[in-house]
Amino acid sequence: MATILGGICTSHIPAIGAAIARGAQDDDYWKPFFDGYPPARDWLRSVQPDIAVVIYNDHGLNFFLDAIPTFAIGAAHQYHNADEGWGLPTLDPYPGDPAFSWHIINSVVEDEFDVTMCQEMRVDHAFTVPLSLMWPDRSEMHIKTIPIEINTVQHPLPSPKRCYAFGQAIGRALAAYPKDLKVVLLATGGLSHQLDGKRAGFINKEFDLRCMTEIVDSPEALAALSTHELVELAGTQGVELMMWLTMRGALGSQVRQVHSHYHIPVSNTAAGLLLLENAA
Question: In the annotation, is 125 catalytic?
């Protein structure tokens, strides 16, 4: 049976990808951020996952405002990246695992979650930047990927409670897969930030640190927030915390915190990193 090793929550800001492309990791501005990632990379080298399930939100590359699914799961042989206009380099396609994807899709639909099934899917910076942070040397990334997209752009958004329950359904699907594979989940996005409107530049450090604590031992408390409460506390784009909740739902009831890192600001955003190892 498949084994869920753990989950990693990380920010996916496009400026991170630009810094990687420029080789700016040791610049004064970027070094405090990038210094948080070696422990996560070391853990990945030690556990050697076969599959990375990446829970992220699309920013208009694959889905636009005329058609946005609440939940979408990739079922392709590979996932292509494309130019988003951020000045990021276009990366080589990421390998998929269609059989595993269809198993997840069938399982969550039986669990009464209606998902969009994508046999072709383009992935944006929310997918590629976290993978680049975890595997800076692409030649060392000997894994297949399964993208799971959640709408955080067009209201109505799924509630934190719904995303947590979706994560639990994903966890049941992963644990029931009959092949002997090791799975790691990556939840991308966040933490608090708002890029537009009167609160542009908004960061709520107190709430961010609360999230990084409660996501470990009491995720139900965060899941109890309404979508509007989450917007108020974390900012319009801070609703990306829902990806973290989805990942946490997929893990067991007991997890062990291996590593955490928090840094502000990164391109007007609070950047968080959290590594949780499954204990059940």
Answer: yes
Range of the domain at 164: 3-278
The DSSP result for 138-190, as a single string, is GGG---EEEEEEE--SSSSPPPHHHHHHHHHHHHHHHHT--S--EEEEEEE--
CATH of the domain at 29: 3.40.830.10
Task: Give 180: exposed, middle or buried? Use CB within 10 Å, 0-12, 13-18, 19+.
Answer: exposed
The model's pTM:
0.95
- Of 80, 125, 155, 228, catalytic: 125
Q: How many domains does the chain have?
A: 1
Selected catalytic residue, list 193, 228, 259, 261: 193
Alpha-carbon distance of 18 to 111, in angstroms, equals 39
> What is the band of 196 on the pLDDT scale with cuts at 50, 70, 90?
confident
Helix (H, G, I), strand (E, B) or coil at 7: strand
Give residue for tokens 């046999």.
119
For the segment 141-148, the average pLDDT, to the nearest whole number, is: 96
Sign of the dihedral defined by the CA atoms of residues 37, 42, 45, 47, in that order: negative
Amino acid identity of 127? F
Amino acid 16 reads I
Q: How far apart are CA 30 and CA 18, in angstroms?
A: 11
Q: Is the dihedral of CA 264, 265, 268, 271 positive or negative?
A: negative
